[in-house]
Amino acid sequence: MMINKTLFLTYVYLFIYILLSSGVILYNKWVLSPKYFNFPLPITLTMIHMAFSGAVAFFLVRVFKIVTPVKMTFEIYATCVVPISAFFASSLWFGNTAYLHISVAFIQMLKALMPVATFIMAVLCGIDKARCDVFLNMLLVSVGVVISSYGEIHFNIVGTVYQVTGIFAEALRLVLTQVLLQKKGLTLNPITSLYYIAPCSFVFLFVPWYLLEKPVMEVSQIQFNFWIFFSNAICALALNFSIFLVIGRTGAVTIRVAGVLKDWILIALSTVIFPESTITGLNIVGYAIALCGVVMYNYIKVKDVRASQLPVESIPDRITKDWKFEKKSSDIYVPDNIGDNEGSSGGNGTASDMKIDEETPLISSSRLSHIGRTQLTNQYATGK
Question: Both 51 and 20 in a single domain?
């Protein structure tokens, strides 16, 4: 039996995305952890990622001209790119610092709070409405995370605060990306996002690095292995490009399912690679409850998008349209308004629709943990 080439490539890209996303997180944990490579300088590591990704993006945009830059004025850069970069840098700083204090498995469980954070920020910024059904889902997610935290054997309040703060910083970045860039009519793909945002994020990270980590580097014996950091940055950049491939071949539902699968795989792998990353039955129960809330929330948002885009019609006609649309969305990549890591032609997706991958230390973020999925959601909404 012949395997459809397009379908085969789609699964290959999904596999590569899951592999790279999990690998980047585990690699960062190994580099930062005092028990392993022992490079406990998360801001420095993040700055290396920003410098490398910004340089690669510069060569792709300006030297090789593979991607065309957008029309960026000083006013747009100052009012849009700068605040987005500030919160992006903050989310990476806090998220990577959490690796020093809590396990990868527990970090993934806390990331279930991402829809809660984006929904709260979207409501506060006025781009989403408070609804009873969504609120109940957010409450279910929060209860699940609390139960999971209660069951954490090596619970650390400092690491938990860092991670939750990073989640809310990322949520605010996503909301600002939609509010600011959509108003300006800008469309950014992963490469142009890196081109504009990575250098600015590097500058924002320089201040806390100079105050917090530079003195430590001067008095401590910190080992620096070029090949370790180079390969780490390559993996992070490759994750961004894998997201670029995935979002052009899958639908919103597919990528959300892949994200949940990746989270479970990552939790399982972390307990094997890092023996101290022990999970309990209460951890699993709490995380399962949180995931139920996330799945229900995703179902509501996808249903809302479909209802807002499809006219009243017969069930057979709607099924036919859905099938044709899924086929179309798997073949074409259309960038949206949410500069990513993932534009402006009438997408109805909001920041609270996003399931972000904050794990990636680059713009893709983050971990498809969101821009990629947001692009898919908006692509699905606009029927492109």
Answer: no
* Number of folded domains that form the chain: 2
- Taking the C-alpha atoms of residue 260 and residue 280, their distance in angstroms, rounded to an integer, is 19
Q: Closest Cα partner for 350 from 194, 112, 121, 82? A: 121
* Residue from 249, 271, 206, 257 nearest 379 by CA: 249
Task: Report the C-alpha gap between 13 and 15 in whole angstroms.
Answer: 5
Assess whether 228 and 208 both reside in one domain.
Answer: no
Distance CA 177, CA 172 (A): 8
350 SS3 class: coil
The verdict on 189 and 235 lying in the same domain is: no
Among 221, 244, 260, identify where a domain stops. 221
- SS3 (DSSP) at 220: coil
Q: DSSP 3-state assignment of 99? A: coil
Phi, then psi, of 144 in degrees rounded to 5 = -60, -45
The answer on 245 and 207 residing in a single domain is no
pLDDT digit string (tens) for the chain, length 384 residues: 456 777 888 888 889 989 999 999 999 999 999 888 989 999 999 999 999 999 999 999 999 988 888 888 898 899 999 999 999 999 999 999 999 999 999 999 999 999 899 889 989 988 888 888 888 889 999 999 999 999 888 899 999 999 999 999 999 998 988 888 777 777 777 788 889 999 999 999 999 999 999 998 888 777 788 999 999 999 988 887 787 777 767 665 667 677 788 888 899 899 899 987 888 899 999 999 998 988 888 788 778 777 876 554 444 454 444 444 444 433 333 333 333 333 333 333 444 444 444 444 343 333 333 333 443 333 333 334
Q: Do residues 257 and 189 both lie within one domain? A: no
Strands (E) across the chain are located at none
Q: Give the pTM.
A: 0.77
Phi, psi of 360 (to 5 degrees): -70, 130
Range of the domain at 245: 1-39+223-273
In this structure, are residues 148 and 109 in contact, taking their beta carbons and an 8 Å threshold?
yes
The tokens for 372 are 């990629």
